[in-house]
Structure formats: C-alpha cells, structure tokens
Amino acid sequence: MSILFVSDLHLSNERPDIVRAFLNFLDQRAIAAKALYILGDLFEAWIGDDDTSKIFSEVKQGLRSLSDRGVNIFIQHGNRDFLLGQRFMQETGSTLLPDEYLFDGYGFSALLMHGDSLCTDDLDYQRFRRKSRHPVYKWILNNLPLSYRQNLASKWRQQSADANSQKTESIMDVNQQAVARITQKYEITRLIHGHTHRPYIHKSDILERIVLGDWYDMGWCLTLTEDGFKQDSWPIL
Ligand SMILES: [Mn+2]
C-alpha cells in the first residue's frame, strides 16, 4: 500500500487534457493507494460549491468513486480554491484539512501545507490572502450570485497573471525565514508543500522540504511507502 500526495493540478475548462489525466490518475493509480492527499489548488478557480459546470461534476464523480472504493481523500485549500467547502467534501467523500496539518504515516511524519503562506516576500499577495481567508469575507462571497462570483474569479486570475509577470523569481519562491519559523513552531524535520511549481527535495541538516510539482505538461505525484518518499512525473498527453 502507499499514500499519495499531489497539488497544483489547476483543473479548469481550458485544459481538458489535465482533467483527463487526473481522472486517469484516480482510476489507475490512486485506486491502489490507502490515501490521497491533495495539498491545494486542485482547481484553477473555485468560486463556490454550487458551481455545477461539467468538468467540476466529472472531477467530483471521480473523487466520489475513489472514496467509495475505500481510498481516504484529504484536501487542503490552495490560494485558488480556498472556497472549497463542506458541501464539496460531502459530495466527494473527502475530508478538508486545516491549512497546516501534521501528517503521520508508515513511521514518517511531515507538516503538510499548500505553501502560499511561506511566500512572505510577495506582500501584495499576502494582503489579498489575509483578506480573502477572513470568515466574513468568505461568507459574503459565498452569498453573492454565482455569475457575479464567476466574473470575479476571472478578474482575479487576470490580475494575478498580470501581477506575477512583473514579479521576480525570488519573490514568488518561499521565504527561508518563513520556513524556519514554521519548522520551529511545529518542531518538524520534514515539510511537504506545493504552490511554487518548483518540484524538488531540499535537504538540510535540520529539515527535509519536499516541493510538489504542478500539473501542466507533466503530471506529478509524491508516493510514500514503508521505504520512504519518492516523487515521479509523467507526460500529460
Ligand atoms: Mn498555489
């Protein structure tokens, strides 16, 4: 048996090939696992559990049949799908995890997080994050008409793409002090996160930091077995 970790699939209408690759991954690979952890940004945008677009229904069905067959699914919010709510979790048989979650399996432990909160050099984004994660803000958002939220989401995507094209590479990576702070706070020796789209296993004397890959040209998955962690990738056809 194994435990799988993925993040940053950014599923959307615009990339049906990635949606297909993810559904195949659920069907052929995750089905043999004990658990699947999705560490944020499963969707390119999620503006409320009442969105019944076709690809969302397909993804929900895929997750549902996986959980029905006994695979535990755990989901963390990403910066793009922080409105995923309890209705989505119920419909898919998944469990929503807190933004910082201590994982333990096969004798290996790690702190799991999406990773956006570690990018503290990106001040504009951190401001947006504080605002958008506030319960009152989320409540108001969730109570706006769906069409209004859909327009808002495309506006956000546009703004984020424009802003990111102006930012330097280092601003969009994790801040080492933020990593050190979280390491001390939880007294961990291993951190697993996504978000930066820079898959790699960073090893220092005190911390192993595993960065998950984003699904774009390749699909990525980190696998934990009794032997430890291993990340692999394959082309999305
Ligand atoms: Mn992200």
Notes on the structure:
The chain is α/β, with parallel strands linked by helices and 237 residues long. The chain has a single domain (3-117, 176-235), classed as Purple Acid Phosphatase, chain A, domain 2, CATH 3.60.21. It is built from seven helices and eleven strands. The protein has helices at residues 16-28, 54-68, 86-92, 123-132, 135-142, 146-166, 176-186, and strands spanning 3-6, 35-39, 72-76, 94-96, 101-105, 108-113, 190-193, 200-203, 208-211, 218-225, 228-235. The strands form two sheets. Strands 4-3-2-1-10-11 form a six-stranded mixed β-sheet. The chain has a five-stranded mixed β-sheet with strand order 5-6-7-9-8, with no helix packed on it. A hairpin with a 4-residue loop joins strand 8 (200-203) and strand 9 (208-211). Helix 1 packs parallel to helix 2. The longest helix has 21 residues, at 146-166. The protein is globular and about 50 Å long. It starts with a strand and ends with a strand. The relative contact order is 0.18. Residues 8, 40-41, 78-80, 114, 116, 195 line the site of manganese (II) ion. Manganese (II) ion (MN) binds next to loops.
What is the radius of gyration? 17 Å
**Which strand order do you get reading across the main beta sheet?**
4-3-2-1-10-11
The percent of residues in helical segments reads 25-40%
Small molecules in complex: manganese (II) ion
How many structural domains? Answer: 1
Largest sheet: 6 strands, mixed
Strand/helix succession: EHEHEHEEEHHHHEEEEE
End-to-end separation in angstroms reads 27 Å
The general outline is globular
Beta-strand portion reads: 15-25%
Instruction: Quote the CATH topology.
Output: Purple Acid Phosphatase, chain A, domain 2
Give the class from helix and strand content and strand pairing: alpha/beta
